[in-house]
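Hello Y.,

Per our agreement to keep a running log of every chain we model this quarter, I'm adding this entry. I've kept the format consistent with earlier entries: sequence first, then predicted structure.
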Amino acid sequence: MNYLQLVRCKSKLQGTLYYEFQPGNSAKGKVWSDESVYVDERAIGLLEPAIASGFPDYHPYSFQDIPKRAWTAIANRLDLLAQAAAKGDESYLRENCRLESIPGDTDLFDERNRSKLESLARDLADWIRSTLKQNDWIALLGL
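Predicted structure for the entry above:
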């Protein structure tokens, strides 16, 4: 499976090393929700700077309820990431992604991988905006 993608169906998950983006808050107590989307742990480092810029208390190993205003800022940063990937802006990608988080055999600056990163960032930003139309919170369930 291509790990640089937003997984929308939990039956497509291979293993359990995924970050779950769940509509609402984690008080529901349910994980692996059918309403959630998932990002492979190998790809989350590319998105973490965008997440942390909108929600400075972000921690990758916890369940966090993040409010709408923070997710709006995160979605905007994901848009910038997608634009940089589309343009091949290596400087932006080096400064705004944790490149050490991806497997050593992945060349993020290869056009195909940049295209996958662009899609991942855009798809997640779109999902966030769509979800926020009906929710004031999105829970991020880390490893």
